[in-house]
Specification:
heterodimer, A: alpha+beta, nine-stranded mixed β-sheet, five-stranded antiparallel β-sheet, disordered C terminus, B: 405 residues, alpha/beta, two-stranded antiparallel ribbon
């Protein structure tokens, strides 16, 4: 049986209150909040975090045969972004990692490609939506990522949602576009595409239902996603689905995360769907796509350790609008009077990929001392080259001491710094993120998160930071790649 | 232990030290020429009498040419040394060993640093291009040393406000001393209220908890002890030179608790062994210690054996290390008020020992302990930060020890 074997979503910690936009600019705004990627997050790091949630279950990583990263806001062009995700997840070097980048529809492309693939495939949908200050895209947009593993063909991983059918309709349509390099997209008059999308959705949905020999009334969860809000609303209203089956679009709390939106909404449904229930995912954008999935008996035991609703509930108090603009690069602030931050150097970064991207430390075979970063010489018994790899990304720790560095170069001063003592040994000093100064205290519990620490000389620097373990986090307690 | 020390085998017979501060109109060359000139004058010799040089700078030049070019030395051996903020002390240590070995009759140690030309706040001279991969969690120097404060407060039960009072007391004391020193960068007393309420730089540290970013140079002339009185009536004899580069495991090992510098403990114990000191608090006349940031000085009081563990803050508060206390610490104002041009600082500390032990410090900041007959001074110089550092301790004295070697 083919189908979905794992999933996970990542909603960034921070929120922007839409009312704050109007308060500052006198225009724009609206009600509710949207999710905001932190200053140290981009679509690559969001993708890593979502994938970590999806792959938290032990034993999944070695089974992944290929990885597709879908995003409309790639961190790099020319250079593959999926390889950074691949490195952070510690996947085997023979696993294909490729980008599906540039268009919002690439999210659907990655899902369908993964669903059709003969090998277990990780599809990661990640997006960071930016609009001009005061504009509709700014306030209705959102940031986030979701990851799905399709497979179950030739291995024992239980299928948690069977793929019953899918269909896609492609249509060349000037609805929304963005020239390369432009920070925000442009849209044609909304009414133009609305009817077209309703028709395309009907075609795809009908084809998929026919293929599965199902009636539209059988749908228990009807997920409609797309950046054309009017069209999505019309499809929800007119498709003929039972009204109670229409799922919430999460716009009020996290906004619309574009490429990642179908993934976030699907993950939210999978967080609560019961065995046997039929899920229809409809994605609008340059055509329409439909996936019909049926939850299996295995779903309840294999749900995401970090439900979307819990991540929404655990979000920050809204960040000030000026902070959001600064993080987004839309407000150019005075830097500290310090030397410019160093860019990564390619050879050392490449030599230490397992550490820098995978956070793999070492443990002395002779005396058991753990070393972060990995060492060749044991700091305790001084044995040389008697180390084994020790993946640390899931290991939690406790703050031994801390500081708040108000002089350091950071896009969001002040820099919070903690010395972390890890459970079962090892110490590392790193930045604390998704936190305020009140979170930096001796004894605080922290976990690790993959971030883009800085962009210097046109090069993104990725590394791990600590973040507070918050009440409500169910956590990722299982092993890493085992 | 097979470290033998060179007690009483060499002496310092001449020293020079520029004022430290913002020398906008002077280059590193200008500064080192001034310090070297003052040193040879004080020893009554010329540069022709110097046989070899050890030159310390962290980032204001590379190779011996930085010194030989500035002084147009005629084909003399010049060795550039670097050991972070302990660079000046490292230059002196090597010059002393060169003379003690018999290789040279007269050696000079010179330290210089020009920080203010960078236009940056704090230390800006970075080292070799590192991995640049952010995996070391690089932070600024004040942030690095501020890690000590919450750890010390937590371990010994000080409330945050109490801890702030203790470090404020240290800054206040060093400014009081610096105000009496015409060569110091900061020559005004600063009220505790102003120190306490200054803008925060990192953690608990305000602007006044940080050493002065400055330019400066200092130099020392070293000869065999038996030759010392040919140059001066008041040589100071080297009793101990101790230097360690730690294993740098404090940021790896949860056993390290950020309330001590084990490297300092190790280098101090070795120095006391070399000098034959058993109770530094009562035997020393003064100590010049590496107060790069105020919590550093607090921790050093315990690491150097001046205070019992967990008691240093009480001794600080009671004034034990004030100019008129039982053991004056940083009578010249320290890195805090005298300024901290990296490569020069270790030699600047020795310059204060030189002045005090020779009775040449201005009366208003002469250590009472010297007048009472104590004749030993300690200098302590540290580079790096909590968990991974290098540490230097010297002990010098104005008298030769009687006991047989």
């Amino acid at each position: 049986m083919a189908g979905l074997i794992a999933y996970g979503a990542y909603v960034p910690y921070h929120r922007l209150a839409r009312a704050d936009v109007a308060a500052v600019l006198g225009t724009g705004g609206g009600k509710g909040t949207r999710a905001v990627a932190s200053y140290d997050e981009d679509t690559t790091s969001l993708a890593v975090e979502a994938s970590r949630v999806a792959l938290a279950r032990g034993g999944l990583r070695p089974r992944i045969g290929q990885l597709f990263l879908a995003t409309a806001a790639p961190a790099y062009l020319d250079k593959t972004n999926a390889t950074a995700v691949h490195a952070a997840l510690g996947l085997d070097e023979h696993v294909l990692a490729a980008d599906m980048a540039g268009s919002v529809r690439s999210g659907l492309g990655a899902l369908v490609t993964a669903a059709r693939s003969p090998v277990p495939t990780l599809a990661v949908l990640s997006d960071l939506r930016t609009g001009l200050p005061g504009g509709n895209d700014e306030t209705t947009g959102g940031d986030g990522a979701a990851a799905f593993v399709f497979g179950g063909h030739r291995n024992g991983a239980p299928v948690i949602a069977e793929l019953l059918a899918h269909d896609t309709v492609s249509d060349e349509l000037l609805d929304r576009w963005r020239l390369p390099g432009a920070p925000t997209s442009r849209v044609w008059e909304e009414r133009f595409a609305e009817e077209i999308y309703v028709s395309l959705a009907d075609k795809a949905l009908t084809a998929a239902l026919d293929h599965a020999a199902l009636d539209i009334a059988a749908i228990d969860h009807f997920v409609v996603s797309g950046l054309h809000a009017r069209a999505c609303a019309a499809v929800r209203r007119t498709a003929g689905v039972r009204p109670e089956a229409v799922t919430p679009d999460l716009a009020a709390t996290i906004g619309n995360a574009g490429t990642a939106q179908p993934g976030l909404l699907l993950a939210d449904v999978l967080d609560r769907a019961r065995p046997g229930e039929l899920i229809a995912l409809v994605v609008l954008g340059d055509g329409a796509g439909v996936l019909l999935l049926r939850a299996t008996d295995a779903l309840p035991a294999h749900r995401s350790a970090r439900p979307v609703a819990a991540q929404i509930a655990a979000g920050s108090a809204p960040v000030p609008y000026a902070t959001y603009l600064t993080w987004r690069g839309l407000l150019n602030r005075e830097p500290p009077r310090r030397p410019d931050p160093e860019p990564p150097y390619a050879p050392p970064a490449h030599r230490r990929t397992a550490w820098k991207y995978g956070f793999v430390a070492s443990r002395c075979e002779k005396c058991g001392t753990r070393h972060l970063p990995p060492d060749r010489v044991c700091t305790s018994c001084r044995s040389i080259d008697a180390m084994t790899d020790e993946p640390m990304e899931h290991v939690r720790g406790t703050v031994a001491t801390f500081t708040v560095d108000r002089l350091a170069h950071t896009p969001s001063p002040p820099m919070l710094v903690v010395v972390v003592d890890y459970d079962d040994g090892g110490r590392f000093r790193c930045q604390l993120t998704d936190a305020t100064e009140a979170d930096a205290v001796i004894g605080a519990r922290v976990e690790m998160t993959f971030r883009r620490t800085v962009t210097a000389a046109g090069i993104h620097n990725y590394f791990w930071k600590a973040r507070p373990v918050r009440a409500g986090d169910t956590g990722q307690t299982e092993g890493t790649s085992g | 232990m097979s470290s033998h020390g060179i007690r009483d085998r060499v002496a310092i017979v001449g020293m020079g030290c520029t004022p430290f501060g913002e020398h906008w109109t002077r280059s590193a060359d200008d500064l080192l020429i001034d310090a070297v000139g003052e040193a040879v004058t004080s020893a009554g010799i010329t540069l022709d009498d110097i046989d070899a040089y050890w030159f310390g700078t962290q980032a204001s030049g590379v190779s011996g040419l930085t010194l030989s070019r500035a002084l147009h030395l005629p084909n003399k051996p010049v060795t550039r040394v670097e050991n972070m903020c302990a660079t000046g002390s490292e230059a002196l240590r090597n010059a002393c060993y060169a003379v003690a070995s018999g290789a040279y009759d007269v050696a000079m140690a010179v330290g210089v640093e020009k920080l203010k030309d960078s236009g940056m706040s704090g230390l800006s001279g970075t080292v070799i291009p590192g991995a640049g991969d952010d995996s070391r969690g690089e932070i600024t120097a004040p942030a690095n040393f501020s890690l000590l404060a919450p750890a010390y407060a937590a371990k010994y039960g000080l409330a945050e406000a109490e801890m702030k009072d203790v470090i404020t007391r240290i800054a206040w004391k060093n400014h009081v001393n610096g105000a009496r020193n015409p060569r110091a960068q900061f020559r005004k007393e600063v009220s505790p209220e102003r120190i306490r309420s200054a803008p925060i730089v990192a953690g608990m540290l305000g602007v006044f908890d940080c050493s002065g970013v400055s330019d400066g140079s200092a130099a020392a002339i070293v000869v065999r002890a038996e030759d010392a009185y040919k140059y001066t009536d008041k040589p100071i004899f080297v009793k101990a030179l101790s230097f360690v580069a730690g294993p740098a495991d404090g940021l790896l090992d949860p056993a390290y608790d950020f309330t001590t510098f084990p490297e300092v403990v190790a280098s101090a114990q070795e120095a006391y062994r070399q000098a034959g000191i058993t109770d530094p608090r009562t035997e020393l006349a003064l100590a010049e210690v590496h107060d790069c940031f105020t919590p550093t000085e607090l921790v050093l009081m315990e690491d150097l054996g001046f205070s019992e563990r967990g008691q240093g803050w009480k001794d600080v508060t009671s004034g034990a290390f004030d100019l008129d206390g039982s053991l004056p610490v940083n009578p010249d104002g320290g890195l805090k008020a005298f300024g901290h041009p990296i490569g020069a600082s270790g030699l600047r500390m020795m310059f204060e020992a030189w002045l005090q032990l020779r009775g040449e410090a201005p009366p208003e900041r002469t250590a009472k302990s010297v007048a009472e007959g104590r004749s030993l001074a300690l200098t302590h110089n540290l580079g790096g930060g909590p968990g991974e550092c290098v540490s230097f301790v010297s002990i010098v004295g104005s008298q030769l020890t009687d006991q047989k070697r």
